[in-house]
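Thread amino acids onto this structure.
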């Protein structure tokens, strides 16, 4: 089967084509359109050994962008007069609400996703317009929604709730939904393969550390807790987000600084984290450079980021009553030996001994502990698109 995977953001669309034949999974095409609706949207892509540099295109909206993406895919992948057509399209959807597994998209599901837009106002609208565009452009091709929230459906009730009055929780569906589920699921499955053990027997803490960051306690292949909650603001400190903060601080600031809802929202989600604390950047690479130069506030931000990961790993382990492996993934998790070292140095009480040489190496799945380490620490690159392609095949079976 040939699966087109789409990840539609507010002004960008990532599009990948996977050939899925049993255990054989081939990424045939990987592309990105940025600047949709802006002055000069650009497309770039890779296929086989060919890598195309950014080229300006016309794309006033998602529908036009997806149309252009398909033109390029067809140009590259059509063979012997046979126009390339995907068998199905898999879509990343951030908030699936009460859709607890990947599903074929129909009008009813779209309506439910629309209803959950209020809980993911930045992410769900472009995800949904990507799906609608595909339904219009390729009416014969089935669409499958793969939800970031779905993996966390298995969290027990006590982990899913806040200590708020019951009626309010039910009225507004104030649950801890959790996010990055597709990544946590992919990485935990790859961990089991890497260790050569059944996933059902493993307790894994997956650490997805990118611009957004979350941990997940994966016990026997199921999410039983995660650090993000009702929105992707809860939990770890992030590029521009505070992560956990006393709600009292929010109330205090709203009063003392006379901040409205939009302003406090911007402060917590866009102006805090690495960016707000350092005053320099939201980008972990720049923060690390500044730490090396002795920048005081960047150093404090970097220390807080690593400290909170370590502290939260402790709570994920408590949730599972033990741990077999801690796994780092995403931009920072895969690429920052410094963060991994800082986090793991604080976990020596678990019997973790890092292999510093392995930790410093780049690329690929690997074990970064010594053979006698009681808990394995791994680096496993995430691949949400591949997971979406797998789910799409599964749903259509
Ligand atoms: P997202 O998908 O959430 O936008 P990514 O998973 O792409 O995020 O991760 C982006 C983050 O990864 C950025 O903060 C970036 O600085 C960081 N990153 C990428 N490469 C490195 C590196 N070599 N060292 C440290 N951080 C890195």
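Threaded sequence (397 positions):
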């Amino acid at each position: 089967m040939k699966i087109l995977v789409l990840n539609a953001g507010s002004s960008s669309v990532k599009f990948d084509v996977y050939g899925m034949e049993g255990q054989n999974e081939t990424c045939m095409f990987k592309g990105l359109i940025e600047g949709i609706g802006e002055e000069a949207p650009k497309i770039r892509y890779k296929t086989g050994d060919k890598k195309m540099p950014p080229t300006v295109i016309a794309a006033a909206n998602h529908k036009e962008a997806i149309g252009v993406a398909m033109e390029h895919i067809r140009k590259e992948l059509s063979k012997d007069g046979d126009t390339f057509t995907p068998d199905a399209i898999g879509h990343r959807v951030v908030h699936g609400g009460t859709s607890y597994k990947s599903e074929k998209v129909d009008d009813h599901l779209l309506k439910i996703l629309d209803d959950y837009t209020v809980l993911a106002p930045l992410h769900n609208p472009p995800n949904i317009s990507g799906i609608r565009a595909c339904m219009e452009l390729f009416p014969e091709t089935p669409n499958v929604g793969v939800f970031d929230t779905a993996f966390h459906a298995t969290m027990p009730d006590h982990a899913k709730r806040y200590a708020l009055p019951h009626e309010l929780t039910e009225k507004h569906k104030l649950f801890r939904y959790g996010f990055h589920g597709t990544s946590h699921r992919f990485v935990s499955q790859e961990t089991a393969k890497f260790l050569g053990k059944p996933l059902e027997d493993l307790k894994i803490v997956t650490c997805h550390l990118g611009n957004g960051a979350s941990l997940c306690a994966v016990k026997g292949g199921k999410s039983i807790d995660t650090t993000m909650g009702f929105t992707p603001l809860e939990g770890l400190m992030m590029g521009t987000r505070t992560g956990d903060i006393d709600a009292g601080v929010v109330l205090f600031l709203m009063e003392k600084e006379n901040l409205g809802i939009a302003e406090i929202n911007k402060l917590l989600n866009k102006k805090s984290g690495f960016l707000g604390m350092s005053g320099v950047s939201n980008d972990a690479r720049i923060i690390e450079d500044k730490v090396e130069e002795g920048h005081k506030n960047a150093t404090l931000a970097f220390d807080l980021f690593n400290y909170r990961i370590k502290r939260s790993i402790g709570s994920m382990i408590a949730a599972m009553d033990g741990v077999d492996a801690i796994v780092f993934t995403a931009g920072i998790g895969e690429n920052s030996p410094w963060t991994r070292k800082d986090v793991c140095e604080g976990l020596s009480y678990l019997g973790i001994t890092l292999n510093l040489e392995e930790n410093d190496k780049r690329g690929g799945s690997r074990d970064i502990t010594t053979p006698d380490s009681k808990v394995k620490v791994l680096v496993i690159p995430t691949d949400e698109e591949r997971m979406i392609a797998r789910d799409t095949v599964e749903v259509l079976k």
